[in-house]
Amino acid sequence: MRNGKGRVGSMSNENRHLKIQYIGQVGVILRKNDIAIAIDPYLTDSVDHLSGFPEAFWQRRYTPPVKPETLTNLDLVLCTHEHMDHMDPDTLRAIALASPKCQFGAPKSCLPMLEAIGISAERLHALGTQEVFQYGVDLIIHPIPAWHEERVRDGEGWDHYLGYILQWDGLCIYHAGDTLLTEELVEALSCFTIDVGFLPINGRDIFRNRLGVVGNMNALEAADLAAHLKFDIVVPVHFDMYANNSEGIAPFVDRLYQKHPGQKFHIFQPGETLVYVK
């Protein structure tokens, strides 16, 4: 069990609440017990400038709701994999400067890229499914394999794509990163009772694959997964920023209403904050 440098949080009733701020694509900032964690923050337009795609294929639908240089109180950033909308060099460089005590956790394959943008090695943690990562006294992070569109591991068994289960002072939070829905993923998640789950719903298709766009579970699969595992609340992500890599939100909502009445969900607007109470 590896240990980060988190600080011990207050145990007041207010601090038992989880504050969730959605910052776009799949990015969220989670605040609880005086600890602030960002997962996959993407707060620039870096993807818009990728080469090798049709003109204007990548075009943000809204400006970043937060400027990364204003994030001066982050304690930990988790990245699920190296794709730019999940591990954006410009965003992470700005966060590292704004929050000089912030630690960064990511798949082992990502660490050389994080060092290359100026984040020192002592601030970096290689995360893998072999071992949990404990941050402070009341947060345990379980790296979960992700299939984007397949599971990729190096010769030592380190996964290139991850999701994260956060067991945090009585709450269980799942951030899927980018992944297909597989039997192996269902099995891995079945060990946990998930309170809040963030699931991608952009799907995949042959035309995106032809351009090298790797896909994820679709809206129907995400809705079914949340209901099957009895998430208390499910949050769809990866559908609202880039129109050419989305299937929209309507199929997700319709699936829940038609097949899983009573399953709670929340659709965030960029920059919105929700206070979750178990």
Automatic annotation (TrEMBL):
Pfam families: Lactamase_B_2
Keyword Hydrolase assigned: yes
Domain of life: Bacteria
Gene3D superfamilies membership: Ribonuclease Z/Hydroxyacylglutathione hydrolase-like (3.60.15.10)
Catalysed conversion reaction: 3',5'-cyclic UMP + H2O = UMP + H(+); 3',5'-cyclic CMP + H2O = CMP + H(+)
Entry keyword set: Hydrolase
Domain Metallo-beta-lactamase: 56-239
InterPro entries recorded: Metallo-B-lactamas, RibonucZ/Hydroxyglut_hydro, UPF0173_UPF0282_UlaG_hydrolase
Role description: Counteracts the endogenous Pycsar antiviral defense system. Phosphodiesterase that enables metal-dependent hydrolysis of host cyclic nucleotide Pycsar defense signals such as cCMP and cUMP.
Name of the protein described by the UniProt record: MBL fold metallo-hydrolase
Native source organism of the sequence: Paenibacillus germinis
